[in-house]
Specification:
Order of helices and strands: HEHHEHEHHEHEEEEEHHEEEHEH
Number of strands: 13
Helix content: 25-40%
Mean pLDDT: 88
Number of helices: 11
Strand content: 15-25%
Radius of gyration: 20 Å
Low-confidence stretches: 219-223, 227-237
Structural class: alpha/beta
């Protein structure tokens, strides 16, 4: 995606992560609140600025996003805006199992009509070729192992809360460049992709302690999206921590896209973190990204 975008010989273009694109769309919708056809007005703004929109990691998990995509992209395509996007699932698999998915299906049809779908899966995970060891991923290590790495950037304070999305969030360590959390503080409860966006904007390194193994257990459960904006009842071979696993995946995706290094102290090695079926495929991508991060350079000191 990055190579394509760099070589595209026009200036009216933009490359964004899908979640950042949707954040911008929702912010624009808020500005048009109370006006007629706000989504059409938002689409016209994008079309006036860009001929080509490149979206990385197109994955639909939030019902609020799912319900507006068809109208938004119908207007964008009608204005001759071109979509180039990457995804780990084909259009027919997007938002599978989501609440009111039948209302999302017109968008799937629209994508298949307007876009050429290309399968680029070579069967080789090139991220794993680079990394033979894991300097930033610890298994059952003492909490101090993370703290010592963070101290390479300078003095860190302990147990200092931070405000993210206008809500307090307890952290274990922090300075102006790095921050560390307990897994349960960061990935349990009402946290969303936008929390992780803001953290990746502010810090070069995020450390997460006490990441559990997401073990499998058959159960009837209400599965939540990372935005906590919908629930759906389903009987699946779920991890008992699938909601936390979704948020962990969202955290890894955001940090990877923004070049924010993750330091992890977990109960098991990377490839043993997720043992259920429901999120098996997205967690494979998550594990692959964690492995590639092991080859990243640790940021310079503050």
């Amino acid at each position: 995606m990055d190579l394509f975008f760099q070589q595209l010989p026009i200036t009216a273009k933009v490359r964004m992560h899908y979640h950042h694109f949707m954040r911008e769309v929702h912010a624009q919708l808020n500005r048009y609140e109370g006006e007629e056809n706000p989504l059409i007005q938002v689409a016209e703004q994008w079309s006036q600025r860009y001929r080509v929109i490149c979206l990385d990691e197109f994955i639909v998990e939030d019902i609020g996003d799912a319900m507006l995509l068809a109208t938004l992209w119908t207007a964008l395509f009608n204005n001759n805006t071109v979509l180039v996007t990457t995804s780990n699932t084909p259009p027919k698999e997007l938002y599978r199992g989501g609440l009111a998915r039948h209302r999302f299906e017109p968008f799937i049809e629209l994508l298949e009509q307007q876009c050429n779908v290309l399968n680029l899966d070579s069967g080789v995970d090139y991220r794993r070729i680079k990394s033979q060891h894991c300097p930033y991923f610890f298994v059952n290590a003492d909490q101090n192992a993370l703290a010592k790495l963070l101290q390479q950037t300078g003095t860190i304070t302990t147990d200092s809360p931070i405000t993210i999305m206008n809500r307090p969030l307890r952290c274990l360590w922090r300075n102006d460049t790095v921050i560390g959390f307990d897994f349960w503080q960061l990935c349990s409860g009402p946290r969303s992709q936008r929390d992780y966006m803001e953290l990746a904007d502010q810090f070069k390194v995020i450390a997460v302690d006490a990441v559990p193994q997401f073990s499998a257990s058959p159960e009837h459960a209400a599965a939540q999206g990372i935005e906590d904006s919908y629930q759906r009842q389903q009987s699946l071979h779920l991890s008992r921590l699938d909601n936390e696993a979704r948020r962990f995946i969202a955290l890894v995706d955001e940090c990877y896209d923004r070049g924010c290094l993750l330091l992890i102290n977990a109960a098991v090695p990377i490839d043993e973190l997720y043992q259920a079926e429901h999120l098996k495929f997205p967690f494979q991508r998550c594990a692959s990204r964690l492995i590639e991060m092991q080859s990243w350079k640790f940021p310079d000191s503050v």
